[in-house]
# Entry
Amino acid sequence: MWKAALGACIAAQLAVPAIAALQPPPARLGWQMYSGVGSVPDLATAVMADGTTHPASLDDIIANPRPELDWSTYLTRYMCLKYPGAVTVRIETGASREAHAC
Amino acid sequence: MLTRFDARSVAVTRILVGIAAVLLAVEDYGLLMPAATDHIAIPLFEAWGAVTPLEVWTIVIVSVVAGILLSVGLFSRTAAAVAALSSLAALLVEQQTYSSHQVLATLMCFYLVFADPGARFSLDSRIRGSVRQSVSRFPVTLMLTQVSVVYLFAAISKLNPVYLAGTVMPTAMIVPLPQPLPLLFAVSSIGLELFLAFALWFRRTTTIAIILGVGFHFVIAAMLHNPLPLWSFGLLMASTYPLFIARDPGVLRQWADAYAYARRTRLGASR
# Structure
């Protein structure tokens, strides 16, 4: 009985990261620290209706740039709230640049 | 029920996990307070809203107190439970607190709840006036397998072109390494993690695995930027090493002999 329970617990310890390994990396609960996969944005810029821009240093607005988080969504929401007249938020990650409507 | 386990080694694990819990609380403060004030807040459940400064202080203070009580072994079982719950709370209120070592700390504290953590080397045993020589093997075995699983999947996840190119660690290091050292570091770290995942379990390799493991975690914490999370991660992983020594009487004898030899040598030198 105890051995079966122990076996089930160890199977769970193995199954959770194994399932995480099958997800697009980086996945949570997968013990994938410092694996180098995933990326975080370098710069977010709110663009106002008149074309003026408000760039934000990500160090000033992100506590921990976890690569598994969907930063496009969170940064867009944050910048649109911070700059009420913004129409889009430009997010730069490495060489790629995306624009998200407020 | 499964056979019993040496309570002394579990007590050492308890002390180290308690220290790691305190370090983790300090780290959590640095992540949670910005999210509670002017930074982006990402609660795990939107309906909860952003974490508040009061909640941050509550989590941090409770975690620190629980970690200290766990280390000194006062109300050990309750302290382990509270430390597990406060660590879990940090994970739930804000997604930026997620990290492998935060999850590992939660699990280790949870396992300790069932391992009679105050049996030895604790204020609990002083107050009780008696010690218990052994504890349940069930949660101890789960701690051991958990650490092996962490090493195993940490190694597997690094088997990707980005990490193998040797470009990941140099960006995090306080001192730039000239080529080909980053590449060597990348390959050897994978090999070492794979080795540790299995070698800790075998009598002939346990001791060398522990020496390499301590060295590995020390070097990582000493060489990378932002070392606080790496110290707590290293402490959590190394906290199980005494359990690997105690689980095998042969390994325990090796360490006891080495200790006795060191004592004799030191006594001889001081005469």
